[in-house]
Write a structure and sequence with these properties.
mainly alpha; two-stranded antiparallel sheet; single chain; globular
Length: 494
């Protein structure tokens, strides 16, 4: 205990010195803000990465990490420690950083410390290398998956350094060389895509946790399982690229689909894969129906055309999270909840896509008065029937592919629960759309729209709802509603 306390105090002293040094560098030398920020990023990560070597217990450093997370959040809000946070943008990366460590320590400190160490080294070195390479080239090749700009050169640096770090750790652990190359390439590529898709510091969460998930699966399963996982990664890449070529997805949507597909296809296997493929393929084809009529509504709805990353996350993210939770804490109920989340997504998507084909105006779910086509919260008979059909198909597919080790979906009762939850979630989505979803008015044409910018890119005026409650968040809330319904139904009906 005394040994741990001494080493913890030394670690804290080192971290304080790093913070002070970064602030000194920023104030002493102009133009070093990004360097000082990455200086703290790299050395802090290396220090905490090796903490399992000189601390027996994880709990003291977890407590310290949580304190740092709270302090970092407050300092970002107050504008303190610019050398650590940066001057030109507000980012909560320094908050996500200790949170990532806490999650990794809780999961892997005792059982798989090498995974914790590797993931933190990727965060400390590879992520920093990507930023420094991309920002210091005179003419980098820029791409955007989100608000933050990324570069091909920076992503390449991210992949190569990640590959080297993972390979070095695995070689030192005594793994065969070919297996090391195989596992390192998969983990490095997944981490690179996570970094490319992340923005505003969220890569401090996605990179270490994503890499840790991939490494844990590969290192704790047989080579046959690793081969199936690799096939899942290849399948995810193929679906993402094909969907991009067919204009089902935007570039960011393809990246998000690759991440989601790797989790579902690689870890969930076929029972989890077939339901989400059913949703994605049928919904994508359905979106191409009535293209001319849907184009007329483009000015009303927030997004149209190829789906972006946030739409992929809104519809498939809850299911992907459930797959991860089922992997960490196996339980029969997870598959039932997974099916419910996809039934909700299918019902909502089909209700919207089919409802827009109606030749009569929809009616508000709150007032039942006619509203213009494309209005959030509007429902129609054909749209409601479309929701029911989508939920029915998804429930049927989930019923047919129920995992053998899951008694959760075995009979007519569970089938009905999933179906009903999907339809209920679609109606809940419409209710949120009518009451809480943000609506704006264009100052040029005076139309009420979901868009924050309208005619000629003119900024619209907020008129009702909750400003941050856009359509993607409404969809996620509807999926959560379906999950809750099915969870409590499964308890009450046992």
């Amino acid at each position: 205990m005394t040994h741990d306390l001494t080493n913890l105090l030394l670690l804290l002293a080192a971290l304080i010195v790093l913070l002070a040094l970064s602030e000194l560098l920023r104030r002493r030398f102009h133009g070093t803000e990004e360097f000082s920020r990455k200086f703290v990023h790299m050395f802090t990560g290396v220090l905490v990465a090796v903490s399992p070597f000189f601390l027996k217990s994880r709990w003291p450093i977890i407590a310290v990490a949580l304190i740092f997370a709270a302090f970092d959040y407050y300092s970002v809000r107050r504008g303190w420690l610019k050398g650590m946070h940066g001057l030109h943008r507000r980012t909560y990366g320094t908050v996500y950083y200790p949170i990532s460590f806490v999650i990794l320590a809780l999961l892997f400190w005792e059982s798989h410390p090498l995974i914790l160490i590797t993931a933190m080294l990727l965060l400390a070195i590879s992520d920093a290398a990507a930023a420094l390479v991309g920002e210091n080239l005179s003419a980098p090749r820029i791409y955007h998956f989100g608000p933050d700009k990324k570069s091909v050169e920076g992503s390449t640096a991210m992949f190569l350094t990640s590959l080297a770090i993972v390979a070095a750790v695995l070689l030192l652990s005594g793994r065969p060389a070919m297996e090391v190359l195989w596992f390192s390439a998969l983990a490095a590529f997944f981490a690179t895509v996570c970094e490319a898709l992340s923005y505003q510091g969220s890569d401090n969460l996605t990179v270490p946790l994503g890499a840790a998930l991939v490494l844990h699966y590969l290192l704790t399963h047989s080579q046959a399982d690793a081969a199936i996982f690799t096939l899942g990664v290849a399948m995810a890449a193929a679906v993402a690229l094909l969907s991009f070529r067919l204009k089902f997805l935007s570039a960011s949507g393809s990246a998000a689909t690759f991440i989601l597909g790797t989790i579902v296809f690689g870890i969930g296997r076929w029972p989890y894969t077939l339901p989400i493929l059913t949703f994605f393929i049928l919904s994508s084809l359905l979106s191409k129906m009535g293209k001319k009529r849907k184009q007329k509504l483009a000015g009303m709805i927030e997004k149209g055309g190829a789906r972006d990353a946030w739409q992929v996350i809104a519809n498939g993210g809850p299911g992907g999270l459930i797959v991860i939770l089922a992997y960490i804490w196996p339980h029969p109920v997870w598959f039932l909840l997974y099916a419910a989340s996809l039934a909700a997504a299918t019902a909502d998507t089909w209700g919207t896509e089919i409802g827009t084909l109606s030749r009569t105006d929809p009616r508000s779910i709150v007032t039942f008065k006619p509203v213009p086509a494309g209005t959030s919260g509007g429902i129609s008979l054909i749209g409601t029937l479309g929701s029911a059909l989508g939920s029915l198909i998804l429930a049927g597919v989930s019923w047919l592919v129920t995992p053998q080790n899951s008694p959760a979906v075995v009979g007519l009762r569970e089938f009905i629960i999933i179906f009903a939850a999907g339809v209920a979630a679609s109606l809940f989505d419409s209710l949120l759309g009518a009451t809480l979803q943000a609506k704006f008015r264009c100052p040029v044409c005076s139309k009420v729209t979901e868009k924050s910018h309208h005619c000629l890119g003119k900024k619209t005026e907020f008129v009702e709802g909750i400003a941050w409650m856009n359509n993607d968040r409404v969809n996620m809330a509807a999926a959560a509603f379906a999950i809750i319904l099915v969870y409590f139904s499964s308890i009450w009906l046992v």
